[in-house]
Amino acid sequence: MIRRAASFLVALASLLAAGASADAADRALLIGIGTYQSLPEKMFLEGPKNDVGAIEALVKGKLGFAPEGIRVLRDSEATRAAILASFDEWLVAGTEPGDRVYLYFSGHGLQVKDESGDEEDGLDEALSTYDIVAGDGDWTNVILDDDIDALLAKLKDRQVSLVIDACHSGTISRSLSVNAGEAMESARFLPRPFARPADAVKTRGLRIDVTVVDKPERVKESGVEAWSAAASYQVAWDDTRLPPEERHGVFTTAYIAGHDPAAADSNGNGIVSNAELLEYVKRQSQAYCALQPQCQALDPQLEVNHALLGASVVNPDYAGDTATQQTPSYDTVEKVKVEEQTAYVAADPVDAVGDILGRPETGDVRIALTPDYLKNGDVFRITVTSSTGGHLLLFDVNKEGKATQIFPNEAAKKITPLSPGVPLTIPDDYYGFDFEAEGSGESVLVAIVVADDVDLAKVAPASYGLTETRDARTTIADIAGTLQQTWTREAENRSVKWSLGLLKYTIY
Predict the structure, then answer these.
(1) How many CA atoms does the CB half-sphere of 25 hold within 13 Å?
(2) Model-level pTM?
(3) CATH 3.40.190.10 fits 27-326, yes or no
(4) Counting runs of H as helices and runs of E as strands, what totals does the chain give?
(5) Domain residue spans in the chain?
(6) Positions of E strands within 248-312
(7) pLDDT tens, 15-50?
(8) Taking Cα atoms as reference points, which of 410, 407, 394, 482 lies closest to residue 443?
(9) CA-CA distance, 243 to 253, in Å (whole number)?
């Protein structure tokens, strides 16, 4: 460990949508709507009827919900009245504080005029129902984001997961189709009825919701884990590579597959974390999008307390026999509890770094130690080389969970972005001091290169560099959460561009 490093101050404060006591009345509500009472057949979706069956198997298996705790609404069963009734008597009345609540929706997302006056853009995000109706210029009989807000308020102190395979994108009809009133085949978004194309350029920089709930800070504060198939201004899709009767949502297929460590465990420690699942789902979605002419971009989203990013998506307390081979071992995980919420994280803080960041290494960022064999008291230097330019964050994390921010720091004469292929060595001859190896055991160097101009001053100010002791899990989680935000300074919204390099080393 570097001599200026900091201590592990606090255990990870986390919450996972897997929960409290074994006898809790956990409830899941799974909704899939592909056919509609009053819509033309060209607006039907093939995937939802298959999605809910696949999600039901996941919820029963790896997530450990009892069969009698799962309710499924398909097509004609999923009217607005039936959905709202299930919210109240199934999810709210049927659970108590500490219980798990899992709400899944597969179908069309849309927007309608905001009647309550709480939306900056004048539009409410909404979910379709089986009995949705195209009124005079707008949809009626829908589930508004305000309805979801009211549900979450009633579910206070439960452990809630929202998983939404639909589109909830601001001005999507203006930005993706010259025929704004026409539905795109297999796209999970309904344009507003009788809409006309807009002459204006795409709106950008406005934060529309990334899940059903368009108040992301409220989601984080309440402990809700909310997954969405696409970022704002993007469309969610049925997988048209499959025959119509076998189709699933692109997001749903990746989300389910990503619960398997063989698919999504990027650091190979046997745990699939929320961050690893998110990165896997993004990669699979973007691979599909690259093959579709109408798909401009596809970036699934996760709104959650940052402390949850490194938490396992499968809780050993709940996983059934069918998931035994894909469940974290109690030898490798640590149970943490904050505010009566329970989660499992990697017991080894060095391994936990990969779980929290979630992204696999691609070789774009390379780290070298000189010398590469260290004994206690040895003087050494660190060199970082990136194939892409950007702003560097460099940390050292040891077995005790202590983190040192090596760069940026106030000792550096100039804080300039890395240039592609140009090594940066720390400390250089202008620092006026050396790094000296201290203690013994394994540590990891973490280099993050951010190509976009993201404001990281709150999570990694230069004043922290080489001076403050910090909790590694919390520090890395805050950075990872910041990098998850949607980039909105271009006409097309997308994920922030960043690369990762890790180097484990041992002081003997």
Answers:
(1) 9
(2) 0.84
(3) no
(4) 10, 25
(5) 27-326, 361-507
(6) 301-303
(7) 333 333 334 489 999 999 999 998 888 888 899 999
(8) 394
(9) 15
